[in-house]
Design a protein that fits this description.
The chain has about 950 residues and is an all-alpha fold. The chain contains 45 helices and two strands. About 70% of the residues lie in helices and about 0% in strands. Helix 13 runs antiparallel to helix 14 and helix 26 packs parallel to helix 28.
Amino acid sequence: MSALVNEIRQELAQVATVPAGRARSSRAEALVDRARATADAPLLLNAMATLMSAYDRGDERGRMFEVFDQALRLWDEDPSLFGGRASNRLLDEFEWIGGLDHPEVPLASIERWAGGMERRRALAGLPRHTVRAQEFLLATHLGDHVRAEELLRQWSAVDPGRPDTALGAWHVRQGRDAEALRIWEAVLAGGDDCAGEPARVLARSLLPLVRLGRSDEARAHHLRGYRLVRGKGQVLEEIGHHIEFCALTGNETRGLDILGRHAVHLDGGSNPAKRLSLLESAVLLLRRLAALGLGAEPVTGPPGPAWTVDTLLLHCDRERGTLSARFDRRNGNTAVSDRSRARSEQQPLLERLPLGIRGGLPALARATVSGGERQPGPVRDFDQLLAEARRLRDSGHPDSRAAWSVLDQEAAGRPVDGCLRAELAAQRGLRLAEEIVQVGIWPSDEDLAAAMDAFEEAAEAFRASGAPAEAVVNRAHAALTLAYGHERGEEALALADEAERAVRALAEAGSATPRQVTAVLLARGRTADVVRSVDDVHSPGEVEQFFTHAAAYAEAAAGTDEESPELRSLAAQAQRAAADWVFGNSGRRVVLLRACSDNHLLAGRPWDAVEPFLELARELADLRERPAAEAAAAAAYEAMGHGPGPVDPESVGNVYLLLARLALESAAYEDTTRHALRAGLWYEACAPERASRQSALAYLVLAEAYCGTGRYEEAAEVVRALLPDARNWHGVDHLLRAREVLGRSLRGLGEHPTAAQQLVEGAERLGRAYACGPSYAAGLRETAEAPETGPEAAYQEAWENGSAVDRAGLLRSRAQSEAAGGDPGHAASILATAQSLLEEALAEAEGRGEQGEELRDELANTWQPLGEFLAAEAERLAGMDVTRFEVMDSTREMNWMEDTPYEPRKTAAVREAREKVLAFHLRVADRLASFGPGWEEYRAGALSAAAEAELKLRGPQPPTR
């Protein structure tokens, strides 16, 4: 018998090496049965403890209670069967088992356990704070607030200073957020290594921090906390808190992403209380989306039908109500369902708390930023419309053209005087000219003629009304418009020169104002600018001088002339145009851009100063004049706030991104963080395709700032959230940079093999043959954290601890090395293994109702080199296949008239290899098509590769006779 007991003990020790789950639990169950058969009480107790641990680790806590009850009966019968350690272990287990989370556990059993536990712990000489804690939890669960507060006092007296999660959660429920955070302070500071911490406290601290106005800490706790619980089914309650936080802080998209990753648990799970928490947060988020008019939007839900916001909301709310009712029936009151309903009906705390992760709703954000659509104003008569149009024109308002367009329509069929007719024609010409500029060089003859006719009509009408200078201004505008015509540059320049001579003559006679002279000079310069883009009629210096002269004339006259605002505006336009023709002289560009911005402000038109200020900031940044650059960027933002219409969110984002980059270059990380978050928030208000790309740039800067201050967990979470959208970025350099930042973050967290893998991934995406991966891993040997980690050890550890994505990346590393060594066939076989790993992982993810975007992205990036290696192997075989054309004497010309067909003889191996390449690309194209929208570019590449493979298979064709 002793041999059997020893054998069972050895097997019990080995159970811990089995991965948590049903297999581990089944093995422990079998050992309990074998131990019971030996009649060895200590062995049986050891087996029971092992089984309870397996249930706990495998998220099967509902099965623990029966085993625990059996163990307690054994203890009650004879405590001496338990050694001191075993006795303590059993009685301490009560703290975790409780039974409150499972409505199938009778309340009487829970109360009986609690009632007998104080006696048992006293007999065992153990402290009784655990009993007080469980009684406290029971009172809070049942909604007995008076009893809970009394037990809280007793508990605090027995165990003062304990940073308990449940204790803090009770204070939160009672509205004592600050007290809860004080209790959790030690955990949040890293001073508690209790199981499940700090993930549990980080999740529960989110809303208290928001309510107390500590948004920066809330953001940090979300980024740190979700990283600890991502993808773990046994922490559904914590995941629910993160979804709740997103729903209440304007990060709905982020909340949907988290919900989608864990949607499989909405319909199942071994812990009903944790599942209820997830359902409550899901209902809260989905209600928020439905209230915003997004009920018909598709979302990820449990496996089964296609879900929308509305249908998933109905499903989750029904499940939430059913589950909370089970608790109510067990408890004999409605405390659980009342709390559940209240939690799922909360109202948002903030319009938006930027996280550094795309989390808002772009369409809604655009409506918020722009203020929505403009409402039609009151109907006004013609004289009012005319007065308003003239006011807008004279103030340089952006709505001026639209106002004159309305007036032009109203004037049709109405008798107007010659002066108004001239104004209407001039404004019509300017509108048509602006449309031509948007088209670019060489508009249609019809469009060009329409604009020219409008200016000619205006010139004639002004001349007839006794305003010859205005007539010349319109002739100058006609010259500029003509310059856009095909091969009309010389004619346009002649017309512009004629207008300049005419306005100068009128000015000498006192018949032209400085504004009119400047307008003609500016039009003359712009005509030269347009013509210079097609014909080298003027040198860049000459074009610049046209604009510089116009600006100097306007500024000289602005100090004394009553038309000062218009002159300042014209001077600014000339200076901006001159700056575009300054090359290799940043100092000169800075002077011009600064003068341009200042003149726009002096003219009372700050909205026109935004772009010059931004350009000035970029120029100063290139000169490494950070304070001046930041001042210019800040001035641009301030100018936007004085604009007459909706703010362009991308322009605001550009300001903040520039400020963030400047701050990052100077290691001013707090400023970088602030500016990058604001940039991302504004970018998310752009159109979706722009929002994804631009916000990624801002959040990448944010992650670099986090790395700079040692906030590696937050940096890693920000970058990981960016990578699934990496295929939408411009170029691969940003992707490499993202991988480098993620690698640096992981290295800071001590995850050295995974950090090395990120650099490997970045190198592979750039096609750099994974050169940096092994060298980086080797470099880790120099750090104290990884004293003997070499390249192979780093790869091996990354493989053992990595996901399917991580392992596929390692295989791609090996494949690149094999290909670089001249063996594309072996490289292709390695990548085929990577493909299988990813396909299997994707199938599992889709079986759980997940989209698997990261896996799809990794598959696409595996297929591309795999296709290249297959093709390279086919051509290697073809090079070994000696045909008569390849051994033909180089001096002999091939006779295309010979009866022998041109296509060389190929061995069966070559043809088979090329057919394999073709079949592979066609299969990949079909697979990419099944991925849905967003993969068209990848699929087009696969089809193009298939076409090339088919041409290779057919061989070269003879020329047509």
